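Let's practice the habit of predicting before peeking. Look at the sequence and jot down your guess about where helices and strands might fall. Then scroll down.
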Amino acid sequence: MTLTLPEQKKPQPKQAPRLLKRHFWQSMQDRTPLGWLQLKKNKTRLLVAVAGIGFADLLMFAQLGIQAALFDSNTLLNRGVDADIIIRSTQYRDLAVSNTFPRRRLYQIQALEGIESAEPLYIATKEWKNPQTRRKTQLTLVGQRLDRPAFNLAEINQQLDKLKQPDAFLFDRLARGDYATVVAQAEKGQTLKTEIERRSIRVVGLFSLGASFSSDGTLITSQENFLRFFPDRGAGQVTLGLVKVKPGVDPQQALSQIKAILPPDAIAATKQDYVALEQAYWEKTTPIGIVFTFGTVMAFVVGTVIVFQILSTDVNEHLGEYATFKAMGYRDRYLLLIVLEEAIILATLGFIPGLALALGQYALIRNVAALPIGMTFARFTFIFFLTLVMCSISGMIAMRKVQSADPADSF
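Done guessing? Here is the structure:
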């Protein structure tokens, strides 16, 4: 009689990845965490490393956060206009130095087929006297037509009737400075009086926009009130032209028609491209954007040096143990994984206090500088990725001494 053993079932193709995954996690659970054990052996050094990484992360969060606030704050007004296409002067640099173009260009655009409206917007910077502290500060002054909203902000559009009165203005409640009493009185419906270049004005309402790097806030009024402060500038000199196309009309097609008729003294662009142009100016042309980028790079370098010093010292202290591993037949890859484990642990432990301090720092900047700064998921993940890269690079550099070590020299 012949005995036949039951055939062993081979793992199905679909089961193979599951078995490999289970084997991987089982091996990870059974593995001795040598990296963590080495780190926690010297708690003082571990705390110093965590503090150094947290400080580097705090610097990177600060640089990127303030840089983003720079871009956001300086495009608040640009993003708030209600238009499909923006007309500006060829000499336009940014809203602070915008120059003007003839208003008759808007009349030419208005005559094109598919254009619903082409309205002027007047913008300039002026010093006004804080009604609360009586100190002078620089604000952005905006003049608009009152029969057609220039902004897509309901808080402004609902108060346009108040601006029909002479010298009446809407004030930005998020302006930088001490305006607590001013805002409180205006919210109660009280009219506040102050001065712009020795001319009395009245604050008849509030809206929310925010300060920028170039201006402490915004005042909005009618174009007639605006022009009273510029006797040498007539209504025919416009800062921006706000063009809206008719429903169903492609803005790109309308833009091509506008560009075909515009003389060299004016430029047309979609609102999206116009905002991108403003941001690119602050990012690439001004030294502010370059400084913040350089600061982020320097923070990354500082963190890399700190982690390298910590890991290099740790490797030197355990050089004998690493030599023993090599004598036992372990390859350099295994030893590198130990050092990388330390680097990843340091990156994670150092990132947590850096993130906590950055959140507090952002809150302080919002309250003191009135800038639109806050934590974003993209910045969170990017800084954590940089931290991992920073620590991994430091670990690989520190590991070079182990790779070149000869076990015979250690015994």
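How did you do? The mean pLDDT is 83.
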